[in-house]
Structure of Flippase:
Amino acid sequence: MKSLLLRNLVSLYGIQLATLILPLLTLPYLTRVLGPAAWGQLAAVQALAITLSLVVEFGFGYSATRAVAQQRGNTSALARIAAGVLGAKLFLLLSLLLVATIIYALAPAFRQSPALYCWGIVFAAVQGFAPLWYFQGQERLQQAAALDIAGRVVATAGIFLLVRVPEQAWRVLALYAVMIGLAQVINTFRMYRELPFVLPAWTTTVESLRAGFSMFLFRGATSLYLSANSALLRLYLPGAQVGYYANAERLAAAGKSMVQPITQALFPRVSHLVQHDGEAARSLLRRSLLLMLAVSCAAALGLFMAAPWFVPLFFGAAYQPSVPLLQALIVTLPIVAASNVLGLQWMLPNGQDRAFNAIVVAAGLLNIVLVMLLVPRYGSQGMAWSVITTESVITLSMALYILRQPDHPFRKQQLPQAL
């Protein structure tokens, strides 16, 4: 059982690393070949596509995975779950196309490259239709993950071969859409080799939508201040300015990812201790917070000092304006580390999901308001300030909520009275 868990954990990390590292490998090449304007346009459409993909994914990576795990071995129940998810995704795909059409009609900035925009929407749909939830629920993720990673590797190689001039920027998203889509098709056929195909019904579709709504709300809200910022910035600024910001945002995101393994490793342990040994859970939480802050502060300091020479070296001399943006965004590294500990390692294990989601949703809306207020006046620097403010509000809100609880992890321990 432990070896099975380890293999699935390795598979999940493989997908996460492929999603993060492979695009980073292409950045030095794309920023130079495309130039600031075309690169900024590509970054904006890609950010929009990643955000819109959540409409189709809809949290099924958690809700459907849990349902499959609970019904493992019951073929008829699994077929019903698959039918419900398929019906929900087809319904959500129509919603995605409607939203994408409205954005295209109302936002002239995205109409500058019709081919790029269309492939971005295809990429969003492909991302959302991934059937990994079934294999993760069955704890047989290795082959499905290998196909997904292989598709991304081939797409990455294709970028170096087929993208040579700014007018070919659309090929980046086309390669990812086609190759990842091929992997999704193969995995879907693999799923239906094990399950009888059942046509989606409205009842099972609605059940699936209800089950995934809570996680969709959380992921959708976080995307408003994580993945959507480059797309929002393009509504106000030229493509080149978006390119400068996208560079800084992606390097800062890579820095933030350094603390994710610690969070994921400690989450199940804290969840267990909360139920069986409260004092041990509080002690682990305090030590985890100190560790996360130490790691993130060291990473932030290193990135801040290295930014003036690393950014031109990595992206090219034309991207010098990315330096102050990166130095601003890396301030969020310890802030995000603290919110990960407080939210994911304390609030969720303690069943404080409603408060957690309320804070995240409010923060996503706050980010949009700040973007509208700051970006028209301060440009991409205003976007960086909006992110810093939003992340700070999240961390502060979580800290205040936790400190109001009678059994919070930072309370003074009662010393035993002398007899």
